[in-house]
């Protein structure tokens, strides 16, 4: 995916890398083609007011505008599907963020998500369209933050704030709320599934763990010994997931080689190695006497 950023206002609530990663997240959540291209411009209030007046007939600044495009472009020998342009006014986003209980960076992400969905055909002129768009924003933002963002309460204050927005757009508050139990389990299982699908060592550990448990049962180990084996198995698998998480975070914040990034990955891998060595030692202490006893008889 190709994300083009044009910053005409200076400092933003998000870095350009953070903007790029978040837009890619939105596009991935919507199953957009990998060859998609989106242009994002950050402008001042005069510029966005002019665009708002010329294209929407509303002569005042706004937070975000989207201009959908249906075409393709060839860059560096690769063909990209141009989805369109997102225009964001950071000063408006920052000013209104407090009204909705959001931080400036949360407000920026909400506007970027809103803009991306417009490029992909969503709208909020009709009420049923607004509900669909709101639901997708809720799902995409929740998956990004890792917690279930609260639905907006339609009180008089929120309705008054939203009254200035054309259509039926409902503004999300992105304050963290307690994660519903089912959602928490869903996110956790998604992490395990990701580990199984992407990590070679995880695919080795699981059959090895099954063999270890079955062997313990065949050797007639007592319940305590089997429990110790199970604990060792899950410790190794848990450390493998932690290692995967560390690698993902390091790759995100340090895409280029850096010595500290290397140390972080090495330490995480070392933790997996130590847990595996511990499991082998425990296995030898439990299995060897049982095997000797079996053959001794």
TrEMBL record:
Active site: 240
EC number in record: 3.1.-.-
Cofactor(s) the record lists: Mg(2+); Zn(2+)
SUPFAM superfamilies per the UniProt record, alphabetical: Metalloproteases ('zincins'), catalytic domain
Signal sequence bounds: none
The record's free-text note on cofactor binding: Mn(2+), Zn(2+), Cd(2+) and Co(2+) support activity to lesser extents.
This protein's name: Endoribonuclease YbeY
Species, as recorded: Phoenicibacter congonensis
């Amino acid at each position: 995916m190709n994300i083009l950023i044009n910053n005409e206002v200076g400092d933003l609530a998000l870095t350009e890398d953070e903007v790029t990663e978040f837009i890619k997240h939105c596009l991935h959540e919507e199953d957009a083609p990998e060859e998609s291209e989106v242009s994002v411009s950050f402008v001042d209030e005069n510029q966005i007011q002019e665009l708002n007046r010329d294209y929407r007939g509303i002569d005042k600044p706004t937070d975000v505008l989207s201009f959908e495009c249906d075409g393709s472009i060839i860059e560096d020998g690769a063909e990209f599907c141009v989805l369109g342009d997102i225009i964001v006014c950071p000063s408006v986003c920052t000013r209104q963020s407090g009204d909705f209980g959001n931080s400036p960076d949360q407000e920026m992400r909400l506007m970027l998500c809103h803009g991306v969905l417009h490029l992909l055909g969503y709208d909020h002129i009709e009420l049923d369209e607004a509900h669909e768009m709101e639901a997708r924003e809720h799902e995409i933002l929740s998956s990004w933050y890792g917690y279930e963002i609260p639905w907006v309460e339609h009180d008089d204050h929120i309705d008054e704030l939203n009254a200035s927005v054309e259509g039926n757009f409902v503004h999300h508050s992105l304050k963290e709320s307690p994660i519903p139990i089912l959602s928490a389990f869903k996110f956790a299982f998604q992490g395990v599934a990701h580990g199984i699908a992407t990590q070679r060592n995880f695919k080795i550990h699981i059959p090895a763990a099954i063999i270890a448990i079955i062997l313990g049962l065949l050797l007639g180990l007592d319940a305590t010994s089997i429990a110790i084996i199970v604990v060792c198995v899950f410790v190794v698998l848990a450390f493998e997931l932690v290692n995967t998480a560390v690698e993902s975070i390091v790759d995100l914040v340090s895409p280029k080689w850096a010595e500290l990034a290397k140390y972080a990955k090495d330490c995480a891998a070392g933790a997996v190695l130590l847990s595996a060595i511990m499991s082998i030692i425990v296995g030898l202490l439990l299995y060897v006497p049982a095997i000797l006893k079996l053959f001794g008889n």
